[in-house]
Amino acid sequence: MTDTLDTAPATGLDTAPAATGRPPLDPPEDPVARFLRAVAATPGRTAVRASGSSLSFAELDRRTAVLAGALRAHGVGRGDRVGVHLPRTAELVVALLAVWRAGAAYVPLDPAYPAPRLALMAEDAALALLISTDATALALPPGVRAVRPDAAGTPAGPVPGTPLDPAYVIYTSGSTGTPKGVEAGRGNVAALLAGLERSGAYRTEPAVVGWNASVSFDASVQQWARVCRGDTLVVLDDAERLDPERLAAVVARHGVTDLDLTPSHWELLREPLAGARTPRLFMGGEPVPARTWKEIDAAGLDALNLYGPTECTVDATTAPISGPGPHIGAPLPGVGAHLLDEHLRPVAPGATGELYLTGPGVAHGYVRRPGLTAGRFVASPFAPGERMYRTGDQARRGPGGVLEYAGRVDRQVKLRGYRIELGEIEHALAGHPAVAESAVKVYEAAPGDQRLAGYVTAASPVTPGELLEHLRGQLPAHLVPATVTVLPAFPLTPNGKTDHAALPVPTAPVADAPAAGTDADAAAGTDGLGEQVAGVWRTVLGLDGVRPEDSFLDLGGHSLAALRVVHMLRRKLGVELQLRHLLDAEDLAAFTEVVRRATLAGAAPRPALVARRDGTR
Amino acid sequence: MTNPFEDDSAGYLVLANDENQHSLWPVWIDVPAGWTVVHEEDTRQGALAYIEANWTDIRPASLVASLGGK
């Protein structure tokens, strides 16, 4: 029995999910060629909207031609890599597209990442040039020059290349302590766009795409690259991404029809977003919880579950979120999804196997990591001379042949959409001179709120605060644990390995028993306000007690948790609070003071979008 | 279930295809069509060391050629 045959017609999402990939596509058109066609077809149509600026297709064409000319004047061409270190503005789109026009590949360098991390990526990728408005923030390798995104150049036509020409290098967490750069080709991106079109995920009429994912993550590719097919991009800045009310307002104002997000993010956005004009949701980055699936199905929202590792160029399978689930659906056209046993034989129908992927999305591999590449991108028994990617994900076929995700074979975890190798954090902890041994695990601090917990045994005296500071200096925020606990010794399994399950769940410092407070007195006066605010912190952080001198971040608060706090207080008290009020406040006492002032300033008008919720949920 | 590519006590080959892309390969599984053995049975570590030493550019050979070795 072969696992690759499929006769279902590729007519879109309404057909029964296929067990494996539909027939391969004709070679799909290069994204830059598509972009030039879109420019010719609709020069006046809006290509990019961002806070404060917008560009038509003709303007985006001109801007990218000029910047590509500047890149070429600096010697950039095919086979080169160009770092892109920019905030989320229209210029980010100009830069990414200009790099492709110049024939090169881009390497996203998120300005929010710690400088040592960016320096490591810049060095590993052997950048030819950097595009930045703030190049001094980066320690560039010797000889690497920087240009601004508005650099003047002689407008340049696109450099012709091949589908194998690299399109980008995106770094993911690496289990041995250093991030690894996945290099994907222009043909991989072309196949992604064509596959999503053929599967029905992208509608044929021009869409307005809310670009939400960070450019550091590959989910961003299937959002921003849509400008190449003539869609309008709405670049959501960080304030909009993290503030549900603002995001909902932007979606409504610009008529966003398509929005990508993680299921964790949806939990926070669902109330402000759900309504008559909810865009089509592209969910990915982590498994969709059963509860979320049911809720979306029951509400009749237009939503897709997208599954795929970075190594297979963003998306490998799609499923409409409706009917029984959760599941990850069927492969995109041309993609093969093989469930194999330890002899690389297809497992019996219904049995769980490791998922191997073949087809036009399989990327080149890991930059400068031949051994790692050869162990993950392996020879495929299913097509002569081709490779298949070993995902490390387990899956089985459910009713109708849909693929159901069934966990990892290793220690990679997904938290709030971020792909995290616990080994990388352990390695960073072990890099502190006072640390003898290190371990990291995931625990559930409150229902639905998963956190990272770090553990060390000390070689010399060290505090959790010092260790967290050490980690924040090297790792992006999503890799920094909520807590680090110093233990006298690690619990061991019978065969002498660290027993991760037996590591104690972290306990936060417990304050005096809180006084009772009610919702009623808080809105009216200020006496119960402190307890109101403390109560929200406890709920969101899953703690028994919090103290006035506690800092939200030190208690393990992350940006999505902060968003929940602000959201809950707005609804409880009807005050106008911003996320930065919480993130800027030194401790609970200071934040309470901010809330108190906001309360005295008077209740904010309730955002119009809140009303819409009542009719639909 | 042990993944066949992750067994430190087993023997491995190194394969290459027409694009000079290399693959670790478990010695107990048939070599797929379109691949050539470029390093005979070795330990996992030995096979990986061979790959690191001999496949220094992970890009497809036809791409490297069209870039003039850049």
From TrEMBL, chain A:
Phosphoprotein listed as a keyword: yes
UniProt keyword annotations, A-Z: Phosphopantetheine, Phosphoprotein
InterPro entries named in the record: AA_adenyl_dom (IPR010071), ACP-like_sf (IPR036736), AMP-bd_C (IPR025110), AMP-bd_C_sf (IPR045851), AMP-binding_CS (IPR020845), AMP-dep_synth/lig_dom (IPR000873), PKS_PP-bd (IPR020806), PP-bd_ACP (IPR009081)
Signal sequence segment: none
Residues annotated as domain Carrier: 524-599
Calcium listed as a keyword: no
Database matches in CDD domains: A_NRPS
A GO CC annotation given for this chain: cytosol
GO biological process, one term: enterobactin biosynthetic process
GO molecular function: 2,3-dihydroxybenzoate-serine ligase activity; phosphopantetheine binding
One Pfam family of this chain: AMP-binding_C
Disordered, as annotated region: 1-29
NCBIfam families named among the record's database cross-references: AA-adenyl-dom
This protein's name: Carrier domain-containing protein
TrEMBL record, chain B:
Gene Ontology biological process: siderophore biosynthetic process
Domain MbtH-like per the UniProt entry, residue ranges: 3-53
A Pfam family matched in the record: MbtH
Species name: Kitasatospora indigofera
Protein name, per record: Protein mbtH
Cellular compartments per GO CC: cytosol
